[in-house]
Amino acid sequence: MIPKKIINNSAKAYSFDREPVNADEVNQMRKATAILTLVENVRDKVGKTFIQKGVYLLQEGLGENLGYDYKLHRYGPYSEELDRDIDNLKNYGLIEVEQNQKGHGFRITTTDKGRSLLKENFSHYTVNDDKLRKISSLIGTEPVRKMELIGTVLYFSKKSKDVSEIKRLVNTVKPHFSDSEIEEAVRVLGEKGIIEK
Question: Which CATH architecture has domain 12-191?
Answer without folding.
Answer: Orthogonal Bundle (1.10)
